[in-house]
Amino acid sequence: MQQISFKEDSTKNRISLEAMLNPSQWEAVAFREGSILVIAGAGSGKTLTLTCRVASLVNEGILPRSILLLTFTRKAAQEMLRRATDLLDNRCEKVSGGTFHSFANTILRQYAAEMGFPNGYAIIDRTDAEDLIGMIRKEMNFSSKIRSFPTKKTLMDIFSRAANKVLSIEDIVFMEYVHFSSDIETIARIHREYRSRKILHGFVDYDDLLIDLRNLLYEHAEICDKISLSYQYIMVDEYQDTNKIQAEILYLLSTANKNVMVVGDDSQSIYAFRGANFKNIMEFPKVFPAAKIIRLEENYRSVQPILTLTNMIIDRAVEKYSKRLFTQKKEGSTPILINTADEKNQSLFVVQTIYELNKRGIPFNDMAILFRAGFHSFDLEIELGREGISFKKVGGFKFMESAHIKDVLAHLRVLSHPHDRLSWYRILSLIDNIGPQKAHMIYERIAGEQAGYLSLVNNKFPSHIEKHIDRLKQFFMLLHTKNLSVCELGEAVLKYYTPALKKKFDDYPKRAKDLEQLVVIMERYQSLVAFLTDMALEPPNTSSENRLETDVSTDDRLTLSTIHSAKGLEWHSIFIIWALDGRFPSIHAIDNEASLEEERRLMYVAATRAKENLFFIYPQDIYDRSAGMRLSRPTRFLDDIPDEILEKRSEGIRDWSYDI
DNA sequence: GCCGGTTACCTTTTT
DNA sequence: GGTAACCGGC
User: Fold this and answer.
1) Digit-coded pLDDT (tens) for A387-434
2) Residue A322: which pLDDT band, with cuts at 50, 70 and 90?
3) What is the pLDDT averaged over residues A8-30?
4) Strand C atom within 7 Å of A433 CB
5) Residue A196 Cβ < 7 Å to strand C
6) For residues A102 and A538, is the Cβ–Cβ distance under 8 A?
7) β A542-544/A391-394 pair status
8) Which residues does strand B reach (CB under 7 angstroms)?
9) First and final CA of chain A: distance in angstroms?
10) Within 496-535 of chain A, which residues have Cβ less than 7 Å from strand C?
11) What are the backbone dihedrals phi and psi of residue A161, each rounded to the nearest 5 degrees, phi first?
């Protein structure tokens, strides 16, 4: 990553910007009126280019608020704006930025009435959506009898794919879930019911955020005009990972000013499973005629031996824009493919090598272990724990979706969203002797009234129910009489919930700690709705030893990450574990060319994270239970690569009882 | 009728 | 560690 840092007067700034960029980068930064597509290879200074363009626009006097920077995560947006601020001044902090989803939410909150939600809406995450579907499925009686009927998770998968690819439920089932073809009627019925329930309860799921924004802009010309006029320059990062709806939103947003820059790399498209279509990149010049196209092909990250290998991995892709990255960093070590006897030896090899690298002066925070799926690192986590190496893990496990967090959030959600049936059921089911039936009965009683939790407090229930919900009533009374801050609300819920927590989980001390962390997060919020929205849209996904991370400390810790969560980042040394065919590519992907190609790009993304050292490790001879077969060869993406480009080494069975 | 405990089975990636 | 079907007890 090229370093940038100075604040000078504007003339000098302009000259200096030009001096710190290569000609292609500068061309992109200096581009003004019209549309432009930047094809940016891995490590080619994409972030630097976007950052400089923001700074450059602000420096010319463009109103920061009228610059819109859409990125893949909010963190990415914040990081770019922070760097732009370093480069110029704090006007850059006022630039509009975030993910498509959070941007959609910001707009939709202002037009909730036009969407059919006069009382506002609540954002539901993936598990909430699944719970709602599970509820419908049960009520419609499709749970029992039919043996292989899709689970709520699979149903949501089908619905979400249909939404993101703008296809019908039938299309998705016939194309991707052929084995459920006979249930297609029922699936479509559940889907219709799911949609009407969301409207009934004022729920908006992730996909709805995009769809509703698209519809709002599409159906209300005057709103579309107003919004598109307010954004003079629009920039979109990671364009290869946008889907059809996002492309339509972008088009609609640009109708007034038509100043659009999209940046992406078709070779790094890894989100097709959620509807992303890298053809958006190819079609950009058609949708935005006369678009300028710029390629960034000089790589500033990796040494030549790594680049030689990664170029080779991606060269074998079936379909791609042709580009070849080059670097000035000629010297460097050859990537290595290592096989170990089993998973334990894989973990031990990684731990050992990390120790050695650290002894040679590589800080832990400049090394990362990458894997295909969250659970692939479980054994390694145990080994690291044993050796006392602290690490942070990104991706995989969803902290916000764990039961105890959802329980606490449910108590908060009904305060701002009285008709949140999911949360009411959750709260009520936590109480002894109340299950689905009684919860349903109680909910029906209070749902007709507009008073929300006060309806619960003021209603008199049959005595066999009343005696159990007494404590809940008192809890809500307390909240009602006191005017508590967000953080105090959290503490009150914790106090009420702790007995249930202890009863429900035998590992409650660990979970109690999580909840305390949650309250710490709440301290940052002035409004409950803002807190709940953030928890749904930008949940913290970093944990250390499965506990939530609160401060973004810059301490010296190793990173464990899924490849998806490692996108855009870089480290001195990279270990790609489970480079085993059947694990990577995943067994689920090998009989379908499109998914196999996505796995290849995923491998490309993983390998291009490395600056100096790149290790691929695979345990030999693993029996995969779910696949019912033996996995024994290294990933096919490294087939037939000569030894001078990829060194092969076997650690075999080694006595790892070394002394530490 | 309803709740809650038990058992067998599967587990990609994320806004 | 989560889901869904099943069974026993109140």
Assistant:
1) 888 888 888 778 888 889 999 999 999 998 888 888 998 999 888 888
2) low
3) 78
4) no
5) no
6) yes
7) antiparallel
8) A 72-73, 99-102, 125-126, 160, 206, 270-271, 273-274, 372-375, 395-396, 429, 432-439, 537-539, 541, 562, 564-565, 586, 588-589, 595, 602, 625-626
9) 35
10) 507
11) -60, -40
Per-residue pLDDT at A4: 45
CA distances from A380 to A94, A343, A344, A387 (A): 42, 9, 8, 11
The whole-number Å distance from A361's CA to C1's C1' is 39
Mark out the alpha helices in A220-264 (DSSP H runs). Answer: 221-230, 244-253
Chain length of chain A? 660
What integer pLDDT is reported at residue A659 of this predicted model? 33
Mean pLDDT value of segment A92-106: 93
Asked if A418 contacts A121 with a C-beta cutoff of 8 angstroms, the reply is: no
Checking if the pLDDT of A10 tops 60, the result is no
Residue A554: predicted pLDDT = 55
Is residue A306's pLDDT more than 90?
Answer: yes
Kindly state the average pLDDT of the residues A82-91.
90
Nucleotide at minimal C1' distance from the A272 CA: B13
Cα–Cα distance measured from residue A123 to residue A653, given in angstroms and rounded to the nearest whole number = 51
d(CA A265, CA A433): 55
Interatomic CA–C1' length for residue A364 and nucleotide B15, angstroms: 30
Q: CB within 8 A of A390, min separation 6: which ones?
A: A364, A384, A544, A557, A558
H/E/C letters for each residue in A626-647? Answer: CCCEEECCECHHHCCCCCCCCE
